[in-house]
Amino acid sequence: MVGDLGGGGVVTHEAGPRLDELESHAAQAHHHLAAGPAEWYRLPGLLRPPLLDSWLRSLRAGLDPAGGPDRRGLRGAELSRCRDGHPLAAVLPLIDELLLCEGAGAGLVVVIADRHGRVLWTLGAPNRIAALADTGLREGDDLSERRAGANAVALAVRTGRPAWVHGPEHYLRRMRAVTGAAAPVRAPGGRLTGVLMLAGDPRVVRPDLSALVRAAATAVELELELAAYRRRWPEPDSGDTNADSTAARLRLEVLGRGQPLLTVSGERIVVSQRHAEILLLLAERPDGLSADHLALLLDETDLDNTTVRAAMSRLRTVAGPDILDSRPYRLRGCVATDVAALQTALDAADIPAAVRLYAGPVLPRSTAPGIVDLRDEVRRRLHAAVLDSGDPAVLGHWTARADGRDDVAAWCAYRAVVERDCELYTQVEAKIRLLERQRATDPMLTRDAGR
After folding, report:
1. Model confidence at 248, in pLDDT bands (50, 70, 90)?
2. Residues whose CB is less than 8 angstroms from the CB of residue 252 and which lie 6 or more positions away in sequence, other chains included
3. 59-86: burial string, b at 16+ Cβ within 10 Å, e else
4. What are the beta bridge partners of residue 164?
5. Boundaries of each GAF domain copy (predicted)?
6. What is the pLDDT of residues 38-47, one digit of tens each?
C-alpha cells in the first residue's frame, strides 16, 4: 500500500508496481481535490501520512493547487545578500562534488534552500535548470509549504527530517513534473540552516537518491562543524614565522576516511595511512612519545626504530621540516584533528554536534594498536552519550547512519522517547523486531552488538 512507502522512503527498481500504485492513488487524490470540498473526505488513504497532513494544511490555508509560481520570493540584491551571508555559500564546492557529479548524468538538478525554504542556488546543466524553472525550482523562489504546498524541501523544513516526494504527490499541479529527495542541513548547535534537494523528472528514480542526499547533508554538516572548530582555534597570523606557526597550520581528518586528509597552509592533501597514524598518535599525546613507544603503538611486533625514523623523515617532507621534535617525538604547536573536535563536543555535552562530527570510525582501515584503542574509545564514548541523551533528534540521526543502523540498544532508546500513537513509533518498533530476528539467527550479530 501507499502508506508502506513511509515519509522519507526510497522507491527502488524492485518496487515498480508500488510506484505505479502510488501514482494511481495520487491521481485519484488530485481528482477529488479538483472536485471540491464535498470530495475532500476521500483524500485519507490515498496519500502517505506526511503528505496528507501537508495537503490538508494547504487546503485550510486556501492555497490554489492550480496556481502558478509565487513571485514573492528573493530577487536581485536581496537574493545576493542572502546568498553572501549564508553558511552554505562556503561549502558550495563540496555540495557540487558530492551531488552534482553523481546526479548530472541522470538529468538531476541540485537545489539548495535556506531554512525558510527559499531557493538560494540551483546547480546542474543549464537546460535541466531551465526545464524545472516553471515548476517553482528557480533561484529565489519560495518552496515553503505556505507558498508551494507539499514538496520535499517544504517537508524537510517543517519536520527537520529527510523527505522524498514523487511527482504526482505534489499538491501544486505545476510541480507534478518533478520528483525531489531532500535532507535538512543543521548548523553547529543543531539549528536548521538549509536544505539540500536532488530534483528531476519523475521517471528518474534511482534507489540511492535519498541516501545520496542524506550522506551529502551529513558531510556538509561535518564541514560546517570543522569550520566552527577552526574559528574557535584560529590559525596564527601569517607574519608569524616560528616553528609553532608551521605546526598550527596543520589539520588532520581521519574519521570515516580510508584516505586521510591533511590540510597544510590551506591546501588539502591525501596522506598515507602510516603518516596519519603517526600524526594522530602524537596529537593525542602532546608530551611526546619515545621511538620505542611509538613503534609499539604503530605495530606491536614488527616495527623497529629505524623504520620509525624513516617514516618521520618522509612525514617532514610532506608536512614541513619544522613539524616535529625528536627525543621524544613531539609535535611543535597544535595540529587540529576532527577526532579532537568530536572529543571537545563530548566534553561540552553537545551530543548533537558530536553525532554530526562523527563521520565514521577513526582510520577505519588501520590495524595499529594505538589507533584501534583510540577508535574503540571514541565510539564507546559517543555511543554511551547518544544512549544517555534521551534526545529523539540525536537518536534519529544516529540510527540513520551506518554505525547506528543495526544498533539495537540505540533503536530501543529511540523507541522509549517516541510517542506511541505516531507512525514513527511503528517504524522504530518494526526495525527493532527485524534486528532481533536477525540476531537470533546470526551469532556474529549478537557478538558485535556488545561492542
Report:
1. very low
2. 260, 261, 262, 263, 276, 279, 280, 283, 335, 336, 337, 338
3. beeebebeeebbeebbeeeebeebbeeb
4. 181
5. 113-224
6. 888 889 889 9
pLDDT per position as a tens digit, 149-206: 999 999 999 999 999 999 999 999 999 989 999 999 998 878 899 999 999 988 775 6
Distances in Å between the Cα of 80 and the Cα atoms of 11, 164, 389, 426 are 36, 29, 39, 44
Q: Which CATH code is given to the segment(s) 67-230?
A: 3.30.450.40
- Residue 111's pLDDT is what? 96
Q: Output the pLDDT for position 295.
A: 86
For 165-199, b/e burial (b = at least 16 CB within 10 A) is bbbbbbbbbbbbbbbbbbbbbbbbebeebbbbbbb
At the topology level, CATH places domain 250-337 in Arc Repressor Mutant, subunit A (1.10.10)
pTM over 0.85: no
* 11 pLDDT more than 50: no
Instruction: Return the domain boundaries, the chain.
Output: 67-230, 250-337, 389-446
